[in-house]
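Quick look at the format.
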Amino acid sequence: MRILAAGDHFVRPDLLRAALREELGAAHEITELTLPWPHEPFGPVGDVHEASGTEEELVEALDGAEICVTQMAPFTEKVFAACPRLRMVAVSRGGPVNVDLAAATRRGVAVSFAPGRNAPAAAEFAIGLMLAAMRRITTADAELKRGKWRGDFYAYEEGGIELDGATVGLVGYGAIGRIVARVLRAFGAHVLVADPYTDPHAARADGVEPVALDELLRRSGVVSLHARLTPETHHLIDAAKLDLLPEGAVLVNSARGGLLDYAPLPGLLRSGRLGALALDVYDVEPPPADWPLHDAPNVVTAPHLAGATRQTAHRAAAITAAEAGRFVRGDELAHPANPEVQEAVRP
């Protein structure tokens, strides 16, 4: 069987190849394709919204392949139509957003994904953003490098806040949210969670308090977003929801830009209504030069780096290789995106 390892400069082809060899041995032919992300931004390709490379180079690389393991390759209707031998695509992301799933299903191609591949990395980064915003770490660093000693941050009015004893609200309680909650509890925080898909009894067993979203926003001095972006959660935190926050609350978004309405944020920060904001994701990526939050006070920003650890890349390769192994052996996929086609295309 021929397998294409369509990697990039994060989940590299050699990592995918090594994971496939570990899973499958040397019995199958593995070819490689290197896509340009992250040295070139991902974006729309054909009829998919988050992909890297071109349809043409992918079609050429897929010649004769029955399986592809990838992170960013653009699996569009055009690609599926040009590759009739393809039977399975394993995507090393939290969702197969670079795959036209309807087209794959019509063509009888099984698709899998890799939930949880970056959960430890994203959880740690969220905690880092939280601490940076609460304690002005990045602001103090930038000022000191400019030669300004901000001893005035010791003034009561300028002082930071602690996680110990704080009430922290997590919007979303999946794989990432659960790790964040565990770390927060170790700091001594009381953790509220709002997630309609979470079993409240299981949440309480974890030591967190499940509540409705509005209650979470009213009670939390710190709020961190960890929900998936769907049509239902787009602008889940809008101007009306932001108004529920306590005076001076800290808001962190390291999940998806579309969860948050960014328009009210500059005014809320300048008025002090919102105490601090920490962001790793944006409504437009990268934000434009005239983005209003660039000069708003008490803002911590990072360029969508929450999942950027070497361990994430290795986990992503291992999860997709394991799915390819299950497919080759005729086993049920662990993370199918279109389970209705799996039986029809098993070897």
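Next, a different chain entirely:
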Amino acid sequence: MTYKTILATAFFAAFTASSAMAMDLTTGTELGTSMEQVQAKLKEMGYEVRKAEMEDGEIEAYVVKDGKMSEIYVNQQTGQVSKIKSK
């Protein structure tokens, strides 16, 4: 293997790993129908839950993962993520 091949392989592996971490939570991901279930699932997925509250009929969680802050909105009826706002 050449130096360029090794470097390209390492770059691809790092990019794939970071993309996988960022994509572990998407709209439609099922987290639960109660605030406690949502918080527990997010913590299990490696998120630090800073705050969770009910707003406009949805569970809203403020989370941090890998230094990135996000707001996660979960439909209380379906338990699925309806919206993700990254900051």
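The two ends are 41 Å apart (CA to CA).

See the schema section for token definitions.
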